[in-house]
Specification:
Helices cover 11% and strands 45% of the residues. A hairpin with a 2-residue loop joins β4 and β5. A 6-stranded antiparallel β-sheet has the order 1-2-3-6-7-8, with no helix packed on it. It has a two-stranded antiparallel sheet with strand order 4-5. Strands 9-10 form a two-stranded antiparallel ribbon. The protein is mostly beta strands and 170 residues long. The chain has one domain. It is globular and about 40 Å long. It has 1 helix and 10 strands. InterPro entries: DUF2911. Keywords: Signal. Pfam families: DUF2911 (PF11138).
């Protein structure tokens, strides 16, 4: 009986791990070096699917989990400066608050949570916000069907639909 229950638990756990890759918004990772720091962003990548994203699916002036499913995770192995403000080495949930002319990116010390609550608001606990920075969105050179992050030598860029938002890191 116990052996059967253990086998069922292990098979369900293994299936749950494999299942993430088959989600409509599969897990993705962007990683790279900025100066001497290794930056890694783990996120779930939703698709446009003919929808208007910013200002509709993702409302302006409302905090967003910066991806789908679980909250997006931003990790740095060294202290860095993000848009001129210090962020200590560590792992953070990354949230964004899109605006038509300016975005906020919020680094939060709580990690591992689902990105939204039942009502649709983010699961972000504001008391655990570590850093908030501003960035300017721009029209991307091409349409990006899937949300993607890219770590470059100058920081990271969020790209989705017809928008890209670069965030400077030193």
């Amino acid at each position: 009986m116990i052996l059967g229950a253990l086998c069922m638990f292990l098979s369900v756990a293994a299936w749950a791990q494999q299942d993430k890759a088959s989600r409509p918004s599969p897990p993705m990772t962007a990683s790279g070096k900025v100066g001497g720091a290794t930056i890694t962003i783990n996120y779930s990548s939703p698709s446009v699917k003919g929808r208007k994203i910013f200002g509709e699916l993702v409302p302006y002036d409302k905090v967003w989990r910066a991806g789908a499913n679980e909250a997006t995770i931003f990790e740095t192995d060294k202290d860095i400066m993000v848009e001129g403000k210090k962020l200590a080495a560590g792992k953070y949930s990354l949230y964004a608050q899109p605006g038509e002319k300016e975005w906020s990116f919020i680094f939060n010390s709580e990690t591992g949570q689902w990105g939204i609550k039942r009502g649709g608001d983010t699961s972000k606990d504001a008391s655990k916000d570590v850093l908030t920075v501003k960035a300017k969105p721009a029209k991307s050179a091409s349409m990006n069907e899937k949300l993607m992050y890219e770590v470059t030598s100058k920081g990271f860029v969020l790209r989705w639909e017809n928008t890209e938002v670069p965030v400077a890191i030193k």
